[in-house]
Amino acid sequence: MRLIPTRAWAATILFSAFAILPLIAVGLNDSYLIVIATRILAYAIAALALDLILGYGGMVSFGHAAYLGIGAYSVAILSRAGFTDLGLHMLAAIAGAAIFALVTGAISLRTRGIYFIMITLAFAQMAYFFFISLSAYGGDDGVALDARSTLFGHNVLEDDTALYYTALTLLVGLYLLAVAITRSRFGRVLTGARENPVRMQAIGFSPFRYQLTAFVISGCMAAIAGVMLANQTSYVSPAFMNWHRSGELVVMVVFGGIGNLLGAVAGATIALLLEEWLALLTDHWPLLFGLILVLVVLYSRDGLSGLFRRRP
């Protein structure tokens, strides 16, 4: 009998735990758990998107929060215009993110190392200040959504549990897509370009095209996370795309383990749970969180996923 790989078991356990969480929330009579969990799922999608290019393409983007903002503002702008369908919101978010990623990625990928990091940050800040200038949508203060997105003309997402399971379905689907991409020929070439772009070019592949394609796919995935985040908060502001948010996404990926898609999901989950728990203990929780992150990185270059693999 063929054994199921350990990573498949881990993914099954993690997503099953997410699936039964609403039942636990009902048992504890604590609806706030679902609200927090939906936020975690949205950020897990964004961390997954970032790990696709960071872990497999070696592209350290410090501006990925821009795509969160593009997704969120797609919901706000279309809803204000009378278009409320979730599918339409996601299509608009994907289109906007694809265009932004294609243009900025084509420029950014002509640089390497710290220069790539800084230019992605610069483009994200340009997007941030652009949305601040949109006074029709609240400028720096943002704008509250009158209602959540509709699903096939129905307001089912007004129910927190329905929104939660929608976010979970998107996360599982995008995770499987990312796994398929990394295991495909495209993913192998992308990884090869990360290790030795000159050698990949010598054997007939164009690292630039593969990296740019991955960059666009990653941006589109992160924009979907922005759509779900906007629905979860019922509020959209430029703060969604501030550079601090990009830094948080990088931390989540590092925390879970770079180059491990499931680790990115777990890293986002544990990082946000720690944030909630430590905030209850002290107002200086970022100090404690930073200490935990330093310890994890010192003892495992592969983050939390590396710690679990080292267990006997």
Describe, in plain words, how this protein is organized in 3D.
This protein has a domain at 32-241. The protein is globular. It has 312 residues and is an all-alpha fold. The two termini are 24 Å apart. 73% of the residues lie in helices and 1% in strands. It has a two-stranded antiparallel ribbon with strand order 1-2.
Explain briefly what this protein structure is.
This protein is an all-alpha fold and 312 residues long.
Structural class: mainly alpha
- CA gyration radius, whole angstroms: 19 Å
E-strand count: 2
**Which stretches are low in confidence, meaning pLDDT under 50 for 5 or more residues running?**
none
Largest sheet descriptor: 2 strands, antiparallel
> Which sequence of SSEs, written as H and E, runs from N to C?
HHHHHEHHHHEHHHH
Order of strands side by side in the largest beta sheet? 1-2
Average pLDDT number:
89
Shape: globular
Beta-sheet strand percentage?
under 5%
State the end-to-end CA separation.
24 Å
Q: Determine the number of helices (DSSP H or I, runs of at least 4 residues).
A: 13
Helical amount: over 70%
Sequence-ordered SSE layout with sheet pairings:
Elements: H1 6-28, H2 32-54, H3 65-80, H4 86-108, H5 114-132, E1 143-144, H6 160-183, H7 185-195, H8 197-202, H9 207-233, E2 235-236, H10 243-256, H11 261-281, H12 285-299, H13 303-309
Antiparallel strand pairs: 1-2
Helix pairs in contact: 1-2, 1-6, 2-6, 2-9, 2-10, 2-11, 3-4, 3-5, 3-9, 4-9, 6-7, 6-9, 7-9, 10-11, 10-13, 11-12
